[in-house]
Amino acid sequence: MAAAVFTLGCFLFVVASASAQYFELKNVNQLNEAKKFQKIVIRNLQVPAGVTLDLTNLKDGTTVEFHGRITFGYKEWRGPLVKIGGKRLNIVGQNTARFDGEGQRYWKGGRNTKMLKPRFLEAIVDDSKITNLYFLNTPAMAFLCNWCHNTAISRITVDNKAAGDGRAGRAFNTDGISLGYVRNVQVRDSYVFNQDDCFVTGAGEDMLVENLTCEGGNGISVGSLGNRADVVKLTIRNCKVINSLTGINIKTEIGAVGLHRDVVIENIELKQIHQYGISIHGNEGNGFPSAQPTLFSLDRYTFRNIRGNMLGAGGVNVWIWLHPNSAKNWRWENVNVVGGKGTMFRPPLTCKGIPGNLRIPCAER
Ligand SMILES: *[C@@H]1O[C@H](CO)[C@@H](O)[C@H](O)[C@H]1NC(C)=O
Fold first, then answer.
1. Fewer beta carbons below 10 Å: N end or C end of the chain?
2. What is the CATH number of the domain that holds 305?
3. Which of 188, 189, 241 for mutating ligand 1's site (highest number of atoms within 8 Å of CB)?
């Protein structure tokens, strides 16, 4: 009787340890084998040029852990360099892990280059957690979550300091964190030093961005993808934008169809902004900034507790350039951005489309 119990105990022990096994990926040819496991460890991997580290079709509930330095061969292509897809995933970087894009190899072309540059990491996940991923020197966009649902993203670092603060214009299209067509997604406790939008969404529902620090780039953006892509229920709070071209950038494109509704932007600190402290314009695209704005509904927008300063007198503290029927149901409370005199704009910037009930000081000179 005692022996039987002992045998059973052993048997259970073996089963338990088998299910705790993980696969350590040594090269991308092992991906199919790795995807049979619930845990995949990726350490110091060199991904060949033009190949995506394809972590799609993972088993439900898979953990992927990144360790060490993950690098990518050089190829001019669209990427992504890493793709992640699945449900109930737990995607984790160890503290010293780096996705090293060696972006310097791509940045030399400047703004008008026709060079194709790979996007870095694209996740299409449901009910998942993504945390502690560190992107060094991204060739182009760093982190994208498109069609993600019920997903918590935290402790993302984008470090393109090697390209400087962007005024030299070296690392274009290096958007930091992008959300598109998501539902119920949070981005928290993250840091982006780049040369394009720090955070951007052009479509999605129920998004929270909290404790994001942005440096060197184009600030926090709410955009439009047009084609009836809407941004509904977005809160951006407790964030900082430092030494950036724009602080907060609400931009919808000329001819865009869609709407933004229930957007709250609060407790934001802007420091040393170069061009626009807060820009809200409906004419992104050719002819910016003077082109006429398209009618695009910005409904139930709240701007609250936004304070900051401009770097020198060249920029403007607040600029609003909207179709007269775009802004509806706005709150503008305790917004105080100072220092800009607009001297870099000829002709001087003017505003339009400010809701009549609000006293918003515009394009101060
Ligand atoms: C905010 O995010 C940073 C990472 O950029 C982190 O170090 C810090 O602990 C976070 N603050 C809070 C209050 O969670």
1. N
2. 2.160.20.10
3. 189
